[in-house]
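This part of the workshop introduces the protein records we will be handling. A record pairs a protein's sequence with a compact description of its fold. As an example, a complete record with its sequence and its structure tokens follows.

_____
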Amino acid sequence: MKFIHAADIHLDSPLSGLSAYDDAPTDLLRTATRDAFSNLVTEAVDEAVDFLIIAGDLYDGNWKDYNTGVFFSREMGRLNAAGIPVFLVFGNHDAESEMTKKLSLPPNVFAFPSNHAVTHRLEHLKVALHGQSFKHAATTDNLAIDYPVPVEGWLNVGVLHTALEGHAAHASYAPCAMAELLAKDYDYWALGHVHEHAVLHTEPWVVFPGNLQGRHIRETGARGAVLVTVEDERIVSVDRIFTDVLRWHRLEVDVSAAGDLASVVQAVSRDFSTLLETEHEGRPMAVRVVLTGRTSAHGDLFGCEAQLRAEILALSASMAGERAWIEKVRVETTPALDAAAILRRADAVADLQLLLDEAPSDTALLAALAEELLLLAGRTPHELADTLPQIKAIRNGEVGSIIESVVPGLIAHLIKAG
């Protein structure tokens, strides 16, 4: 017997910030969650699984129109034709209170109720599925403690959307402790809400499958679901299956040895080539390139982010064609000389360093800068501004922090130019 456990599908989830990039593969990104879900259904049919579990956040809040629901019903029709039932709980993104637009569920789809936990029995398989949906998005009650007792002699599966314990990066919805799950004496806990794949316990199994498709740079790496295989009423394997159609990567490149912009690009070329070899499946990639290290090239990179990104875009186009999109290039290098070493130079640059060190505490200067910079921030398109931390800092009146971040690059640039 086999079943698939998936979660956090977020059908038709909006992908924010795309309009800020003229070269973004918008068509691919816009349909990514649908395409990943179709891949999941195809896997279920090809593997001839006995059922599919969706542990919450099938949707991403209320639909803009009914097309999202129609698409889901069409995919469920494919499973229905293959005789595959689907069991789902609704989570914080698709709780009852969030879904004002609804369509009747297809006949092969069973949604667990939100008022209390129930057990659904598959008599021919001797499988008992226990679950409860969210009624409200901000469900902070511990739902797990009221889940039913296991059915003796059957395979018992708990389906729960939860932050569990120790996942501070995710909102603490339906929190519970690992000990509470283990005390239920189920064979498998099919969890959702945490977007990273994690097997937290075996015998019994406690599993987050991760989301089906990474939607932004904070969701890097392979994404998909898990295939659970049962023999003689025992779970013998829990294997990942990958459904993502585009994969996000954060490529950190150490440019400590680079002396100028050209050698920085060469270092990126080397590491980018390695990334392409690693991702040998040919899946499209969205890549953020992050330059790190203490380097004498820091001054060359100051204020040259646009040129640097153009160089790396050209590099990507020549090496990967349309397979890779450079989402952003971040310069997180530090200068070869620190402030103390610069002050020991006792020259004009050292005098400027001393002056700029005092600038973040100069109230008159900060006020004048804030007034000028607010005019600039006001002319910045809202969607682009949301992607720029400097614009947010200006709007929050944090001009001093901008000066502190700019000074090392400016000084390094002057030293390099001199």
User: Anything to note?
Assistant: Residues 40 and 368 are 56 Å apart (CA to CA). The chain has a mean pLDDT of 86. The chain has three domains: 2-242, 246-336, 340-418.
